[in-house]
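Weekly modeling sync, notes
Attendees: AB, CL, MP (scribe)

Item 1: holo prediction request
CL wants a bound-state model with fe (ii) ion before deciding which constructs to order. AB pointed out that an apo prediction alone won't tell us much about the pocket. Agreed to run with the ligand included and paste results into these notes for async review.

Input as submitted:
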Amino acid sequence: MALSVKDSDSIPVDPPVRGDPITGERYYAARWAEAEWNKLWTRVWHVGGMAADLLDTGDFLTHNIGRESVVMLRQADGSVRAFYNACLHRGYRLAWTEVGGAPQLVCGYHGWRYNPDGMLAHVQDPDDFPGGSPCGKHRLTEIACDVWGGLVWFNMDRGGPSLREWLGENVARHMEQWQMDKMTRVYAVSSNVPCNWKIVRDNFNESYHLPTLHPQISTVINDDHTDCVFRIYADVGHNMMRMKGLQPSARYETCNQLDVPLAQALEYWGLDPAPFAGNAMATREAIIARKRAVGAQMGYAHYAAMGDEEIVDYFHFTLWPNTTFTMWPDGVQILRSEPHPSDPERCIFDHWFMAHQIGGSDVVIGPNGPTSLQAVDREHIVFGEKTLGEVADQDLSVAIGQQLGLHSRGFRGGILANQEKRIQIFHERLNDVCGIHD
Ligand code: FES
Ligand SMILES: [Fe+2]
C-alpha cells in the first residue's frame, strides 16, 4: 500500500522572501559568531549521539559544541537526562569520552562523584565544608533532553519548545516513515574544516551545484530543479527537498540512455534492462512497482511503512539551523556543521550514515559503497588527511574557496536563483534570530 505524505493545509510551504542582502561579513565576523552563540546555538535542539549507546543506567554520551560540553546519561527509569559537563566544585570537565558508562561520574580533579541523575553523591572531606557536606544538596546543571529517531537530542534552553514542537508535526511524521530508530550508525566521521558553518549550510540548502560539483550522480538521481519538490516550513525553520531517485537527470537530452548503474539496479530488482534501453526515465516507476511486489520477500521489510516516493527517492530535510538528514530508501545520511569554539572561519563538520539491515545481510550500501553493518563510534580526522566521503569532499572543496572569496570587497551579496530560495529564507530567519539587519 502506498502511503501519501501530505502536509497540513494550514502551513504554507512556499513562504515569500524579503530579499535581505546576504553579504560576506556574516561568514567571518566575530559579532556574528557571538550573536549566534547567544541567540541561536544555546536555544535550539541538537543531536547529541546515538540512543543505542545508552543501554544501562549510568551509560553516557558527551557532545561538545562551541566552547560548551554536554553529558547525556541513561537513568534508572530508562529515560535520558542531559547536564552541562562541568564539575560543580571548580569547573573541571567531568566526562572526557564521547561514549562511556559508570555507576557514577567521577571528577578527575578532586574526586567528587555524581549519580546518573546529576546529584552530588560523594566529596572528599565532607565535614570540611561550611554548613556540612554538600552531598545531596547540589545537582549538575540540567538542560532539556529527549530521544527521537534513534538519536539523543539536547537543548540548552530549558524554557524553549519541546523536541516534538521544534520538529513540527509535518516534518516529524514524515521523517518517521524511515524508522531511524531501527537503523544502525555504520559511518560517523568528523573534522575541523576551514570554513564558516553557514557555508556548509548554504551548500546543503540548494541543489543548483549538483551538475557542476557532483556530475557522477546525474545517471541515477534526477537533479533537474523542475522535477524537484521544495517545501519550506517557515513556522519551525526547517525545509525539505525531494529528488527523484533511480531516474537520470532530465537536464540532458541524452537522459533516456540507460547507463550502467540504472541497468544494475533493474537487474538487482529482477527486471530485464533491455526494454529500458532508450527509455531510462521509466526505470523509477518500474522499480517502485517491483519494490512493492517483492520488497518484503527480499528483506526490505521497512518499505511496508513507506510511501512510493519514499522507497525510491531522496528526501533532504534540513532541520534548523544546521543539520541535514538525507533520507535514502534504506538509510539516512546526516550532514551537520557546528561552530568552531573560537574561530568563525572554521567549523566542525559531521558526516554520519545510518542504515537498515536488509534481510540477514551484514553488509549495507552507504555513502562510500558497501559497508559492514556494525555500529561505529564517531571518528575525528584531520581535514585533508582522509576522505569525508566522495560527495562531501566535493562540497567541502568549494566551501574553502568560498570562504576566501567572501572576504573580497568585490563580493556584493548573493544573486540567487529561485531554486536557491531555501538559502534566502535561512539567512532571513538567522537575521531575525540574531537581531542583525544591517
Ligand atoms: S573540580 Fe571537580 S572535584 Fe574539584
Ligand atoms: Fe553537494
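Recorded for review: Residues 50 and 151 are 5 Å apart (CA to CA).
Action items: CL to compare against the apo run; MP to circulate these notes.
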